[in-house]
Amino acid sequence: MTDQTGLVSVVVATNRASPYLAEALRSVAEQTYSDWELVIVDNGVPDPVALAELVAQHPRSRVLHVPPPVTVSLARNAGVAVSEGAFVVFLDDDDVWHPERLQTQVALLRDAPAAPASYCGGWHMDAASRRIPPSWPASASTAQDMLAGRARMPHICGALLIRRQSFAQVGGFSPELSMMEDFELMLRLLQRGDLVCAPGELVGYRRHDRNATSTSLSNLRVRRDAIDGILARHAWAARVRGDTRSAALLDSHRGFERRRAAREASRATLWAARRLRLADALTEATWGLRHDAAGYAGEFIRRLARRR
Fold it and tell me: What predicted TM-score, i.e. pTM, was given to this entire model?
């Protein structure tokens, strides 16, 4: 039994003809928790008529047209602005939900009124919707440990169910960001308190050749620079407002990410060198040695030793 105070606003931002959108929307319609509304933000879909026909198949759903070009952050913020739910949740146009996803996370937030959001685990799937390893179960951790990088943050923004009030208080997504916008939003939510964990696998994340998140070298470089810049900015802002505790945690997280990225750069150096992509190898070596020489060199030596 639900009531108006438990309404969940589901926001889907899309700018393409996703072959998976129908399955994504169906996973919302099949939720055991029925008190939801659905806002599809069209920020450049090539066939608006086909989108309208698809959305018309689902009750309590509407399409919001936002003329491109806009970032995914702006599109999602626009969707939230026209919605009414006490909770907001984001679904990508190629992902799916477990039928009990909303019921589980709404119950958790009702039992923890101080928590700004709940997060869950999930599974990976391929273009044919088959489950593929690895899954990513969620583990309960404090906001402090997540801010410091000692505990894993929610895997994707779609794993969060956020109180509308908390989303508004942190200012929503940073509108200028089109990459790592979910990471940046999570940092701001974590500075408001502990999130509640739903350890089950409740979100299906699809891997396919149209993913916005690529594992190419160029994309990995952009992502690591974005993470470094976001953490540096948040640490600086915390110091400016006198929050030395958060600043120290964020500085720790930045160091952790640099060490992780340096190891990644070491692996990328060897990968590029074996393919005679010497410019890429030099770029990765330069980055790794500049940001964490010990970690870069250690990983490099371990990788070479394995090949003997």
Answer: 0.91
